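Q: What does the assembly look like in three dimensions?
Context provided by user:
Components: two
Sequences:
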Amino acid sequence: MNDNFALRLDHVSRDFGGLPVLDDLSLTITPGEFVVLVGPSGCGKTTLLNVLSGALAPSSGTVTTQGVLRTVYQHDGLFPWLTVRDNIGLGLRGLTDKEAKARELAELLALIRLEEFAGHYPHQLSGGMRQRVELARALAGRSDILLLDEPFSALDYQTRLRLRRELARLLALRPRTVVFVTHDIEEAAQLADRVLVLSERPAQVKTELLLTTPRPRDLTDPSVVEAMGRIIHDLGLAESDFELREKNLGE
Amino acid sequence: MIDEKAPHETLTPEIRTRPFEKKKQGSPKRFDIASLLLPLLVLGLVLAVWAIVPTLKIRGHPLVEDYALPPPLTVLQSIPDEVHTGRLFSDTVASLFRIGAGFSLAVALGVPLGLWLGSRRSVRAALLPGVNFFRNLSPLAWIPFAILWFGIGDPAAIFLIFMASFFPLAMATMAAVATIPVVHFRVAKDYGFQGRELLLHVTLPAILPQVITALRVTAGVAWIVVVAAEMVGCKDGLGYGIYDARSALRLDLVALYMIIIGLLGIGLDRLLSQLTRLPGVRWGYER
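A: Here is the predicted structure of the complete assembly.
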């Protein structure tokens, strides 16, 4: 048996009122790996993430995690009644040494370049800033696994590009195991070590794609473009797929 | 290729420059004066109408008798006497004490009950019908029991104010708990909040803006109930003052007490509205 894993699903199934959303899914994620799950909408991505985070119990099968796990959400993840400083401070609740806590907090604020906004409340920040604060909080103190639930999908396109770069930079400084759920093919190709393309419901791993180009990767980098082509093909969104479907429809 | 003979207009889209419009700048100072003068103007008009109506005559008969609508001046003249005897002051203090005690008690018990109702399904199933029943029951219906149980005086009035504010506060708090995004609780779990800590550091701050709004609304209701409660259940207070003056057919005093009650009600709301300025609740009013 290989014990070197951060997260493992063994034959996990989950249904909602008889509707199978996850069906006999097995998956191993090794420490330090950046895995992106891509799938058509409604395929069970969020269910899978909730099962991984423990928010949802599987109907059958087992989920094993090793280490402290934190989730970054699309929105509403920050507590609106706390300042940026206090929100990030949540990630340092385990630290008892006050001095070490203050030092770590200052470092995290510098890391996301929001020192001047330490005293601001989330509603006073832009969407991109808020997600940076969430990332800093998730990276604070002792955390091992980050679950990212479409963390950039509520942002505008250019901010999204910037934050992909930001995430790559932060992870280079503070390496973590990452499970990143998204519907954004570009995001997958730019960030992942491994892309898992999920099938329609019930979600199964349809194809697996390994990417070895070091991060950060340019959106137009040949390896990224190639990966995008592959993912598009695996999702059945390539032009040839559409043509085939239209032909079948015509007959 | 560009066809030179083509009508000029079709080739070059008309470019219109819009002159930069300077916004009419109402200086903040001027705005302040307007917001101060306008209500005063309306107040002046109301007072003028109030002063004129009692002087109107139809075929030699006054439109309204003096005692039925005492003019503003009569009301004004009644002030020195009331101040001198100290009744106005002692009545105000008595009423404020009662609402302070009854309302504080309702907040201290109603908000925790609401939190409990909001966070436990079984508690909701057990208690919600009861809370709903009493919320829809006019607190004034309790007057006979209040007097029977507590006699005439402070406790009866405090009890009635409590009954008027406790149930709406519990309901509003419960409803607020239901609106907390589920993500907040997931985040709380990720960062190790449980039990009491979860309640005090997540649930409570998440509903605070809505609870403050509920406090303001409920305090208004409680203030209305004070007057009614004191009319029958007390021997002093602003409500009793109205009742007493009515018995003596001193409607000038009734009007004076009405004005005091209204002004204090505004003051009470202003006081509670200060809570919305707390930095930790601004988010609830600015999004």
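Follow-up: The beta strands of chain B are 57-58, 61-62.
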